[in-house]
Design goal:
The chain is α+β, with helices and mostly antiparallel strands. It has helices at 6-14, 19-31, 97-102, 104-119, 136-144, 146-154, 157-168, 173-182, 184-188, and strands at residues 35-39, 42-47, 50-57, 62-66, 90-94. The protein has a five-stranded antiparallel sheet with strand order 1-2-3-4-5.
């Protein structure tokens, strides 16, 4: 088993919901000899510095998500897309730690297949949306920051559209730029413009109960 990452150890001290389930998934991932890192504020598992999978807790379930899950054979039909427009990532949804224990061998098989996908250098053939025309200010910032570009491209098309609509709306360039700067960290953290983070940070704007910001 690979060693744990101190940053991820700290992450688990803050987790309340799905902690047992996520810790069980963590043990399985480490047993597959993956390197543990903290990316986008979540436990991320890599092979030779390439992203393989990431863990996350949500309101109704916790998830083990594969970055290139669309390339996995999924012979058991266990993976689901996180959104209707998701082209690359696929995930397991879990609500019970016993379920994870029983499926451990199957989960490992998917992890090992994901590693082989990386070894083979396979890439997802993304379909570009013809409906998205990014404002010049956003294009410039994506070009200037590889990290921001990677994070933005990792978002689902729906989240990209949400940002694009918001960034494109102002008539003045300085206002468009200000909006991009304001939401820069949210993009880097892998969140959509309307994703609720009220349970993650006290510094975020107040939640109106619908889990969107006001």
């Amino acid at each position: 088993m690979h060693s744990t990452n101190p940053k991820v150890d700290d992450y688990f001290t803050t987790v309340t919901q799905w902690r047992q389930e996520l810790e069980q998934l963590r043990a399985i991932l480490l047993d597959c000899q993956l390197t543990e890192e903290l990316k986008w504020r979540s436990p991320c598992y890599t092979f030779q510095k390439r992203n393989i999978a990431i863990l996350g807790g949500f309101k109704d379930y916790c998830a083990l998500s594969f970055f290139k899950g669309a390339l996995l054979q999924d012979v058991h039909g266990l993976l689901v897309a996180p959104g209707e427009n998701s082209q690359s990532s696929r995930l397991f949804k879990f609500t019970d730690v016993d379920e994870i224990v029983k499926m451990a061998s199957q989960i490992k098989a998917y992890i090992y297949e994901a590693i082989e996908v990386e070894k083979a250098g396979l890439k997802v053939a993304f379909k570009r949306s013809t409906n998205l025309v990014f404002p010049e200010e956003l294009q410039q910032q994506l070009k200037a920051s590889p990290d921001l570009k990677s994070a933005f491209e990792a978002l689902t098309l729906g989240r990209q559209r949400g940002y694009n609509l918001y960034f494109s709306a102002p008539k003045q360039s300085k206002t468009r730029t200000a909006r991009i700067e304001k939401y820069r960290q949210r993009i880097l953290d892998g969140n959509g413009i309307n994703d609720c983070l009220c349970s993650r940070s006290k510094k975020m704007p107040q939640c109106d109960g619908s889990h969107k910001y006001i």
